[in-house]
Amino acid sequence: MSDPHAGAMDVVNELWASSVLAAALASALTDASADTPAQALDRDADRAALLRNLPDAEATLESLWAERAALGAALVSVLSQAAAAAAGATRAWSDLSDEAMRAQGEASARMADVIVSKIGPAYGLFRPGHVTRILDVGTGVGAIATALAAAVADAVVTGIDVADRPLAIAETRRAAMTDVRERVRLRHQDVVDLDEVDAYDVVWMPVPFIPDAIIDEALTRVLRALRPGGLLVLGTIPAAGRRRLRAANAWLAAVAGGSTLTTDDVVDRVNRRGLAGMQLFESVRGGPVILAAISPREGAPSGNG
């Protein structure tokens, strides 16, 4: 007869090994001393021995290397939240270490490049000599806000967040960037307390960081804050293809206070509000799908395509 206890321990051991392997991969991707995948394997023999349990470790690292900052930071964040959840503690993104928050902020700054290089041209934004007022909801450490201000010479960016620690890091970052600091404003504010009207040309809001309970009110507030014809830009998470991954994402979102909404869910909400010219844009591999749409109020132009 098979031993049920032995079978259960096999499951536990496999899960333990998988979690440590994920940590080793995150460590390799975020290893600042490694300039190449080969160096990441050479730097630490024990880590390399574990990583070689991946299917074709060298090729796997090579395929991930171009987006190593974003993927590594995402893995660190998920592992940190998962560890807290395992201990019965709620751990939001703002509970990470300062170093981890900075790393994830730097990775998220790549969303600014997508907004400027892909979304802007699709909607005729960021014209030279035209001041563009941008709202960055959930600005965190200010990486996206400062990146937008650096990339768009006439942009004035306001970043809001409810967490003090990342805002303090954001303020230090802003103050150090002499070329943009006069065009970046930061304030402690919950998106559901946003009371501005027709104040911004563009609003960026990462839906995964907005709790499900307030997402509808958040959308109402940011749409009110957009000028007629303004552009709403939302980061969304595509539905995972594998059932286990979908369940994992949903549980982590629930315990950390984030959103469980997928791209399709957000598309439905945007459609119900009558926004025009909706388009979806890919970001980094494994990263969010970005949804853009024009404010539905009178006088709003439609986007291309």
Number of domains: 2
Rough shape? globular
CATH architecture of the largest domain: 3-Layer(aba) Sandwich
First-to-last CA distance: 64 Å
Note the run of SSEs as H and E.
Answer: HHHHHHHEHEHEEHEHHEE
Low-confidence stretches: 299-305
Class by alpha and beta content: alpha/beta
| Average residue pLDDT | 85
Number of helices: 12
Q: In angstroms, what is the radius of gyration?
A: 21 Å
The total count of strands amounts to: 7
Instruction: Give the fraction of residues assigned to helices.
Output: 40-55%
Instruction: Identify the CATH homologous superfamily of the largest domain.
Output: Vaccinia Virus protein VP39
Instruction: Supply the CATH class of the largest domain.
Output: Alpha Beta
Structural overview:
The chain is an alpha/beta fold and 305 residues long. The protein has two domains: 4-65, no CATH class; 105-294, Rossmann fold (3-Layer(aba) Sandwich). Helix content is 49%, strand content 16%. It has helices at 4-29, 37-42, 45-51, 57-65, 68-86, 98-108, 110-123, 143-151, 164-176, 215-225, 243-256, 263-272, and strands at residues 132-137, 155-161, 184-188, 200-206, 226-236, 276-282, 289-294. The chain has a seven-stranded mixed beta sheet with strand order 3-2-1-4-5-7-6, sandwiched between helices. Helix 8 links the parallel strand 1 (132-137) and strand 2. Helix 1 runs antiparallel to helix 5, helix 5 (68-86) crosses helix 6 and helix 7 packs across helix 8. The longest helix is centred in the first third of the chain and has 26 residues, at 4-29. Mean pLDDT is 85; it is low at 299-305.
